[in-house]
Task: structure prediction
Amino acid sequence: MKIVKTAIVLFAITLIVGCAATTAPTKSAATSSAASLNGGTFTRAMTSEPASLDPQGAPSSGLSLVLPYLFDTLVMYDADFKLVPYLAESWQIASDGKTITMKLKSGVTFHDGTPMNAEAVRFTFQRFKESGAKSPIYDGVKSIDRVEAIDDLTVRFSFKEPTANFWSTITMPYAGIISPDSARKVAETGKGNLVGTGAFVLDQWQAGQSLTLKRNPAYKWGSTLSQNRAAPYIEKLVFKVIPDATTQLAALETGAVDAIFVNQPDQRARLQQNPKMQVDETVLNSLIYLGFNCKKAPFTDPQVRQALSYAVNKEEILKVALGGVGVVAFAPLPPSLPGFDASLKSYELGYDPKKARALLQDAGFAQSSSGTWEKNGQPLKGVLLTSNRAPNDAIAALLQSQLKAVGVTVDIQTLDSKAVMDATTQGKFDLLVWRYDWNDPDALNIYLGSDRIGATNRVAYSNSKVDELLKQGARELDGAKRKQLYVQAQQLILQDAPWQPLYVPLDVLATSKRIEGVKIGFMGRMLLNDARVAE
Result:
């Protein structure tokens, strides 16, 4: 066995090339000494609140935003894609890759006062395997054959075969360790919330308005990513529900909130000119795509999906809807993830209205005198579903216009994020503008794997050859071989066209400079243990 220490570069199982997020610069020591070391409130806007605070539940808007402050994971990534100890202080990996033994930190307690130990870790993952089927990391958790509490502070993970995506799975906020006592109480009474070991504790939840967390005074096991590894200086952390992006911007500028996530170029430019704001780019490994409901006619036909893909002018979308900020996408994975390959450009269904019309004819559609397409007396039309968060409205309007130009009528339906998630998991849509953010090429399995239909596979795409390649990719420990498996899978996906990749966004977090010491970590997470409210 090989002992893995804090300083070592991420070992081969993760097989991930570095992808750095930026760190917000902190002010001088002299300035910080003038700040309030304790107390004060930090308020962040969020578009909509989570459905629950169960890390193992179905994904919902805002859930991954709140979880990291309430629940700690065993390990985490730093901004350079390197593993950092968290609740686990060290680990050993068997030479065959089928066993990973972790030594846990001592003296860690849950918010309910019970100890965080090996049995709590075993309980967490056993509960996950039994009831977490709707979670986006469920496939990664399923790959764990057994979890054993060897002694109070030693836990062993066993696998039937090597698993390449284990580390990316357990670094996600959904893998937070939960108090067994809290889980049993919630199960017995149907009331209350699960409890973690995080730096903050749930204080108050006003439905539809805000989630308020308060400092955990017992906290003393923070990661090396923060100078302050004890309780945060901030007294309260508030997530205020503000659905509209323009209202969020106004709230930041007036001081009603201290931080917002920005994905609109005009807002970004405006905030960069504001001397009271700190604007930091984030790398979220994201992709925005146009999806087709592969279980709903006529989008069950790959030729129809291909035809509509050829009708999409991505350059126009980037220029008009995004102000040129972002990168046109041609593959299902963004460039920041292994598995992306420039050769996939040759498989792209690029903008070509003539090919769009020709493919519709090949699919049995005939164009009427008015320019619309019909088959067996039924017109080719659909409803384009997206969330009401900008810039989705502008993107949807452009797609509507581009499809109309080739004779396809599309109506636009905008709902809040939760309603879109509900509609897509139930298959109640035709076309979809959506986004994913993920930390591993296993994103292809999560969002396009057949066994995720009805959950995270929102477009109900199914291809057995793709499934097999993705399963091999999840097991393959050789980096070059793993990448090639994902390249092969993407070649098939691009031919089947369940998605038309649109663009890779360039997002930022904007923070009021009245808050000092905020750092931006992996996947855009705000690290707040060093944050202080300046007075």
